[in-house]
Amino acid sequence: MSIFKRLRDLTVASVNDVLDSMEDPVVMLNQYMRDMEVEIGQVEVAVARQVALEKKFRQQLDEANALIEKRDRQVKLALTEGEDELARRALADKKQFEARAAEYETLYLAASEAATQMREKLAELKEEFYKMRAKKFTLMARAQVARTQKQVNQAVAGIGNQSAGRGFARMEEKVLRMEAEAQMSGQWRHTNLAWETALSELEKGDLDAELASIKASLQEKKTASAQ
């Protein structure tokens, strides 16, 4: 297999894949039904024309037969009256109308047969259209169910995919970090309070000692004054 044929096959396959992915069943089914409606309309027009042609040939045949009967009466009347020349002319016209009637009958029968066949084809086409229309609603409903199911499956799959898993792990790590920071902040605050308490105790001890010193000094002065 040549490289060019392989490239061509790959290109055709790729194009077909793209076209398949672009075909929405609902849209395509509606388009097929519209196309069939157009086709039925065209066939109906053709049938109407054929029926009109059938009626035209039938009318011409009836008119020719009526003239044949008229000329036949005229021939007999002319012979009864002794008008042989008139009878001859009437008979000649009768022969012409008989030939014309035979032609019209051939045309009429052919047109009638064609009209009958076209009516049958139109009936079959309409029957197929009604079947397809009924099937279209079923296919559309199935397509909608399949589309919804696919969306649900994709949503469920999206919850457990790697991206979502990494996102949840990252958020969990962040929450743990926030908790650790909050705990450390509490411990630091507790340390600060203990440190401040210790300083206060030291300061309190200094104050007590200073007060005791002042008190002793006052007592010494009082004793000295008493002496």
Structure description:
The protein is an all-alpha fold and 227 residues long. It has a domain at 23-159: Helix Hairpins. It contains 4 helices and no strands. Helix 2 (25-80) packs antiparallel against helix 3. The radius of gyration is 56 Å and the shape is rod-shaped. Keywords: Coiled coil.
Brief digest:
Keywords: Coiled coil. The protein is mainly alpha-helical. 96% of the residues lie in helices and 0% in strands.
Topology summary:
Elements: H1 3-22, H2 25-80, H3 84-159, H4 162-226
Helix pairs in contact: 2-3
Describe the structure using short key phrases.
about 230 residues, mainly alpha, Helix Hairpins, rod-shaped, PspA_VIPP1, PspA/IM30 family protein
Radius of gyration (CA) equals 56 Å
CATH class of the domain at 23-159: Mainly Alpha
SS field, number of helical segments: 4
**Class computed from helices, strands and strand pairing:** mainly alpha
Helix share bin: over 70%
CATH topology type of the domain at 23-159: Helix Hairpins
Strand content: under 5%
| Strand count | 0
Mean pLDDT level: 77
List the helices and strands in order. Answer: HHHH
How many strands, what sense, and barrel or not for the largest sheet?
none
Annotated CATH architecture of the domain at 23-159: Orthogonal Bundle
Q: For the terminal residues, how far apart are their CA atoms?
A: 136 Å
Low-confidence blocks of residues: 12-22
Shape: rod-shaped
- What is the subunit arrangement here? single chain
InterPro entries: PspA_VIPP1
Organism: Brevibacillus gelatini
Keywords: Coiled coil
Family: Belongs to the PspA/Vipp/IM30 family.
